[in-house]
Design a protein that fits this description.
Elements: H1 3-21, H2 25-28, E1 40-44, H3 48-58, E2 71-76, H4 92-104, E3 109-112, H5 120-126, H6 129-136, E4 139-140, E5 149-153, E6 162-166, H7 167-171, E7 174-178, E8 180-184, E9 188-190, H8 203-208, H9 211-218, E10 226-235, E11 248-249, E12 253-257, H10 260-270, H11 279-286, E13 299-303
Parallel strand pairs: 1-13, 2-3, 2-7, 3-4, 7-10, 8-10
Antiparallel strand pairs: 1-12, 5-6, 8-9, 10-11, 10-12
């Protein structure tokens, strides 16, 4: 480099430093964005449908997960006979858009169910999910009919080595897990892994035999192809069914990933919990199910 080039480069460096010194610290110190398909996509400040469209596009579109002719099962929270504004169940507009995109990607059939806590017909109707799914072209399956459950073994599990699992999950080509994020009185938090309690027949066994370990065990029976965490509305107290609108905040977030543990870790932060307050996250990390330290992952953050 000759003297003229050196002086030019020095001037450019000084100019950048002057500009950077006037930027907010969090902007000036932002890391270079990682390349490639992200491990996690976090979208905020939009409506459920537009956030999902933006998030799934960043992961390569629904065709990256669903191929023509495949059967898809979508598993939301529909456990409670509550209206959408109370944030006890997954947002029905979001579930409907997932169904539409699966069918647009060529899915032969899209089935939706949950093993509900309240009477299932009331839950399906009051949540708005049944109408939304059927209008989108999907099929609602009974979740509380024991004839739909089949015995399975899981040698890798620690506590729950056998369980009866809804056969739709076992038979599906593609499994999409789409819970709502909320407070839970027993498990501290409902999010990605806790949603598996709605595909297991005997939830009482899980409650009586080390619930955090059983939650981590349950996800080994059929790992989702895609996880979508609905945090558009978020129940922050009196979960899992809530009491009223005072229990609800509207942060307008949506998180997407194949990694269940990463999304639960990020969900805990949204609820302002420390990770050790939600024991099944660390258990699942230790079992190799996913990564709770999201600093190790390529996280793409998007704004609508």
């Amino acid at each position: 480099m000759d003297r003229r080039e050196f002086l030019k480069a020095s001037a450019m460096t000084a100019a950048f430093a002057a500009v950077a010194s006037k930027l907010p610290a969090q902007v000036a110190s932002q890391p270079v964005e990682k390349k490639g398909v992200p491990d996690v996509v976090a979208v905020r400040n939009g409506e459920p449908v537009e956030m999902f469209r933006k998030g799934i596009e960043a992961l390569g579109g629904m065709s990256a997960f669903v191929k023509p002719g495949q059967t898809v099962v979508v598993k939301p929270n529909i456990g409670w006979d509550r209206t959408p504004d109370l944030a006890a169940n997954t947002n029905p507009e979001l579930v409907a858009e997932i169904v539409r995109q699966c069918l647009a990607a060529g899915a032969a059939k899209v089935e939706v169910f949950d093993r509900t806590c309240h009477e299932w017909r009331g839950c399906y109707k009051t949540s708005g999910i049944k109408e939304a799914v059927e209008n989108a072209g999907g099929v609602m399956l009974p979740g509380n009919d024991d004839s739909y459950y089949v015995e399975r073994e899981c040698p890798q599990a620690v506590k729950m080595k056998t369980a009866k699992i809804h056969k739709a999950i076992i038979d599906a080509d593609v499994f999409i897990n789409v819970p709502i994020l909320k407070n839970h009185g027993g498990a501290k938090m409902t999010a990605i892994m806790k949603n598996f309690m709605g595909l297991v027949q005997d939830r009482q066994y899980m409650h009586k035999n080390n619930l955090p370990q059983c939650i981590a065990d349950s996800v080994l029976y059929r790992k989702p192809d895609l996880n979508i965490l609905d945090a558009y509305r978020m129940m922050v107290s009196n979960g899992p069914q809530g009491v009223g609108l005072n229990d609800v905040q509207t942060p307008k977030y949506l998180l997407l990933s194949k990694d269940m543990v990463a999304l639960d870790a990020m969900g805990a932060k949204l609820l302002k919990y420390e990770l050790d307050q939600v024991p099944y996250i660390a258990i699942a990390d230790k079992m190799g199910i996913g990564v709770s330290n999201t600093d190790k992952l390529n996280v793409l953050r998007l704004e609508v």
